[in-house]
Amino acid sequence: MATFSLLEKRTASRRVRYRSARRLPFMPYGFVPAFGLLVLLWIGMGPFAKYVIEQSVVRSTEQVLAANDAGWATAVVSGQQVWLEGQPATPMEGEQLVSLVRAARMPALFGDERPVTRVRARYGAPIPSTNPTRKPEWTFRVSEGILKLEGTVPDEVTRSSLAAAAEGLVDGQHITRVDDLLTVTHVADNPAYTEVALKVIAAVGQCDRGVATFLNEEFSLRCELPNDGVARIQQLVAQPLPVGRLGNVDILPNEAVATCDSSLADLLATTHIEFALASATIDPSSNDLLQSVANAAANCPGTLRIEGHTDSMGSANANELLGDARAEAVREALIERGIPADRLIAEGFGARRPIDDNSTAEGRAHNRRIEIRVVRASD
């Protein structure tokens, strides 16, 4: 009996110990190695993560410097901090660059993020302007409903006034958006230039497609628009400029452009202007055709581009030169027949724009051609 009781007690004791062990919590044993593993991962991944973030900062900063033509600036990157060094032309230019670098965004795991947390400037003294009387220049374009403003202005006030004038043309149909790409830089601060810029915006804003420039104090315009808008744009252009001079103005009514292109294409589709073999000398048999082309060109609006095309026989360089020479020969022939020289430009394309198969004699004959078309605002 005593032996049995002792065995029974030992068995019961084992059961108690076994059951007690099953109820011990996991955390005291599992948390420590898991925490240690996380620490090791953090130590191992830390330098890599820092490198990835720093490279994102470098890329975003380089993109900002390149996009804003800030060749004068040098960026020093440490982690997510950037120091900008160099000599800006004006204090405002330096401050603007700091703001742009700080606001730059880059793609990240959860969308675009700003990788730069702090930007500091260590600029030298602004570089004195070597040409304090440099004149403002602009190029304003409208295409597919977007009015784009590019150029230089003397200050933010001028920039804001021009942008506001452009925004005033937005109607949701003709002009749907304004892209303000004007740059504040050291140019002459003269209210007359702002007046010209407002005039340019008003003019190009009337176009379906158009480009207006003010370069070297010369205002030029190429504008495509419906026939019923021609008188309005002519009235705008006829107003005297407060500064500068009027350059080339091409007002291109859509219907007239289409008619001109169609008539010239029809003339040159069935009969080609013939040249001597591998030469830019026009064959006398093409004189009547040239006169018909001149008659049609006289009724065309704007500037005409004469394009010289060749087949693919021979070298690409030789074909380019031959295309140029033939286009120029046709230009001279049309000038002789009464078309003003300033309305004609010549350009050779060689064999780059075939319209038929160059592997056949018939195809090569089709590719050797002269085409004439109205220069568009988008060209």
UniProtKB/TrEMBL annotation:
GO terms for cellular component: cell outer membrane. It is found in: Cell outer membrane. Its main location: membrane. InterPro entries: Bact_OuterMem_StrucFunc, OMP_bac, OmpA-like, OmpA-like_sf. Keywords: Cell outer membrane, Membrane, Transmembrane, Transmembrane helix. Residues 262-378 form the OmpA-like domain. The chain crosses the membrane at residues 24-45. The keyword Repeat does not apply. The keyword Protease does not apply. It comes from the Bacteria. Pfam families: OmpA. PANTHER family: LIPOPROTEIN YIAD-RELATED, STATOR ELEMENT OF FLAGELLAR MOTOR COMPLEX. This is OmpA-like domain-containing protein. It comes from Hyphomonas chukchiensis. The lineage of its organism: Bacteria, Pseudomonadati, Pseudomonadota, Alphaproteobacteria, Hyphomonadales.
